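Q: Sequence in, structure out?
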Amino acid sequence: MSHPDLSLHHAPVSDLFPWPKKPSDWDAYRLSNEHLRFFEEYGYLANVRLFDVAQMRRLREELVEIMDPSHPGHDLYYEFASNESTDPDTVIFHALGAWRITAAYHDILWNPAFVMAASQLFGNAAVRFWHDQLFCKPPRNGGVVAWHQDYSYWTRTGPIQHLTCWIGLDDTDIDNGCLHYIPGSHRWGLLRKPVLAGEMDGLKAFLTGEQLAAFHPVPVTMKAGEGVFHHPLMVHGSFENRSDRPRRGVVINVFKDGTRSNSDEVLLHGVPPIPAGSPMQGRFFPLLFDPHNAR
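A: Exactly. Output:
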């Protein structure tokens, strides 16, 4: 018997993330004007509380299950790499599509704290799902994720109106390979894309002298359950895990409703193509939140 595909459900399938019952309930999840100004100026916003202790416990339990290639829902992943770096001494577990496999990873897409923040960072626009990711670095030999811009891998959709949210399932700091950002780099325009699990500084070969002079990485340390949002053109990366602790994170990538396909090719493995020029919508790209319905 095949494993149920949760992409058929465009609403929560559990009670892990309770949905607000009345408009005023959304106020607890709204970002401040100061938060919004920081994001606009620097291109990222960190330390946004998104999961509580019970939610993290559930997500960690399900993560152990779905990292196993023998899991019955394994074929539902768009991509799965037990080690994307291919070097056994620098391990990066990376997978796309967990939302189709387990209830908790499906329902984080409809986490009120996430969708409200995403909508505000979009200028109070409706939010549509793009795809999820799992990034895990084991203790001592977790590899790097090279400096890059997310949209350089997403040019098959447009215009550029995307947003990334990285959420830690562990405390993250410099020792275990936290994210680093180059503040203001979201205004540099679209750069050439490097190999994601390749040499850390590969992107620098494509930068101007002015950009290199402004290349000052800022580490983002966070408690488990906190997330960081960043602009699709933000230059970011993460160094190796040198600690005795794991560094596990889940990523939710979204775009504004109205984003369109730029390609007649397959956008995600196993997902039917969306003709170029057509809106990104349907079973695999559900609408997560419309702020007009939260008033």
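The chain has a mean pLDDT of 94.
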